[in-house]
Amino acid sequence: MEVPILKQGEFLIATIQAALSDADLEHLRLALVQRVVRFRSRAVIVDVTAMDVMDSFASRTLREIALMIRLRGADTVIVGIQPEVAFAMVQLGLTLEGVGTALDLEEGLAYLNQKFKNIN
Amino acid sequence: MAGEEIRVPINSDQDIVLARQQGKTLAAASGFSLVDSTLIATAISELARNIVSYAKKGEIILQKLSAPGRRGISVLAVDSGPGIADLRLALRDGFSTSGSLGLGLPGVKRLMDEFEISTAPGGGTVVRIKKWRQDQREK
């Protein structure tokens, strides 16, 4: 299941649309990092609204995506973590520490627009 | 009393997704809330991943439970892999043998109401976890 990655100006938006296997997540990680380089993107939004389970592997892969993208000098915001998924993640001890999060795509975009407006 | 078994063979990372989806469906059908169904599905995902990572193949067996005055779900994760050499260490929070991932067993234990494990070096691992419906849980 390929995750579509949309280029929106200086940002990239990856929208997860169904449950992803480990291989799908690893593919997403590579695809995002490559596109950040190709498009010289300043930020990436990963929309996980459709993910009904976030286990240790998914959580670790998202954290790795954010860390790799930070090394490229860009930001990552994870948006749309469902309340029950957040509950399960915390119980399991997964915190996505150091990764930006926002309620939904709209909030994520607003956060990034505000941030880059201040810099420009 | 226990209901019919749903057996999900675990041979690849695709099967992890399948097992947790089956578990979530069964939990919802048993009347679990969305939060509890998600906790159960997450626990199944972790156990199925342990099978793929450490034993390569095994099985997840799901079953509805009904005891006097309460209903629940049982998940059995069975493999005949290398087993866990130091179980005490594996059940300690933060323990990991494969980089930063770890076995996640303490986390799985926190997600569920009951947790049993039997393992022997070279003799495979069996984990049985259970969760009871919140509205019926004994006070």
Describe this structure in words.
With 120 residues, chain A is of the alpha/beta class. Chain A has a single domain (5-119), classed as Transcription Regulator spoIIAA (2-Layer Sandwich). Chain A is built from 4 helices and 5 strands, in the order ββαβαβαβα. Chain A has helices at residues 22-39, 56-71, 83-92, 105-119, and strands at residues 5-8, 11-15, 43-47, 75-79, 100-102. The longest helix of chain A is centred in the first third of the chain and has 18 residues, at 22-39. The radius of gyration of chain A is 13 Å and the shape is globular. The model of chain A has no long low-confidence stretch (mean pLDDT 93). The two termini of chain B are 21 Å apart. Chain B has helices at 13-29, 34-55, 87-90, 105-111; strands at 2-10, 58-67, 70-79, 114-119, 125-132. In chain B, strands 1-2-3-5-4 form a 5-stranded antiparallel beta sheet, covered by helices on one side. Chain B has 139 residues and is an alpha+beta fold. Chain B contains 4 helices and 5 strands; from the N terminus they run βααββααββ. In chain B, a hairpin with a 2-residue loop joins β2 (58-67) and β3. Helices cover 36% and strands 31% of the residues of chain B. Mean pLDDT of chain B is 89; it is low at 97-101. Chain B has one domain: Heat Shock Protein 90, CATH 3.30.565. Classes of the chains: A alpha/beta (120), B alpha+beta (139). At the A-B interface, α2 and α3 of A face α1, α2 and α4 of B.
What are the main properties of this structure?
heterodimer; A: alpha/beta; Transcription Regulator spoIIAA; 5-stranded mixed sheet; globular; B: 139 residues; alpha+beta; Heat Shock Protein 90; 5-stranded antiparallel sheet; 5 strands; 31% strand
Architecture blueprint of SSEs:
The complex is a heterodimer of chains A (120) and B (139).
Chain A: E1 5-8, E2 11-15, H1 22-39, E3 43-47, H2 56-71, E4 75-79, H3 83-92, E5 100-102, H4 105-119
Parallel strand pairs in A: 2-3, 3-4, 4-5
Antiparallel strand pairs in A: 1-2
Chain B: E1 2-10, H1 13-29, H2 34-55, E2 58-67, E3 70-79, H3 87-90, H4 105-111, E4 114-119, E5 125-132
Antiparallel strand pairs in B: 1-2, 2-3, 3-5, 4-5
